[in-house]
Amino acid sequence: MNDVDALSRAPVKESHEMETASLKISKTIIDEADWLFAIQLQDEKIQKIIADMRAEKKSENDEYVIEQDCLYRKYDGKMLWVVPKQLRFHILHECHDKAGHMSTDKTISRILNRFWFPRMRNFVKSYIKSSVGCVMYKIPGGRQEGPFPKSSKRNEHILVLVDAFTKFTIVAVKITATKHVLDALQEVTSYVGMPDRIVTDRGTAFTSKDCKSNNVKHILNAVRTPRTSGHARRTN
What we know:
rod-shaped, about 15% strand, alpha/beta, four-stranded mixed beta sheet, Endonuclease III, domain 1, 8 strands, 2 domains
């Protein structure tokens, strides 16, 4: 036994007798239907619709359907899950923010692939209007005609004066009131001379009686005829 080590010869203590209980942890698997039911259960208006339908012993009516205890809305041949109020911001985050900050119509179209909730358009428009990403990075569509962000001199508008020879001069004005426009015109004519005639659009500053002075022939362009002031249009 010389080749047997000390550990193998160590006395083995008897194990204390103790009750052993096998702990079995059963996982509760919450599937999609259970989750949809649970989240709708917290919305009082949805539960009222479901209760009214069940009181009439109907699982569906002209607008809604109850399937697996969940409320769905009939829309364009599809069954759309009715979104509880507390979950609508999350739906908009998924269908608008994560989708690239699309327009109102495109966002609504994405939502209506699976979901529905009342006054959706108003809610989506309000959400997009207050969306930080849209406010910071999106440029409003169409031609911007002012007012623009105030400059260091508190100017908000652009008055474009185009001469047939010098081609153009741009002067900033604070507001488009007649007095300010006339002051800008007088400043320009003080160093380039008084023109024989001027062609303008039909803005109130130009149609004012104060503009009809200094023996200058004033021509107002026709409505929706931009070619009559082509130089100014190209400058814009």
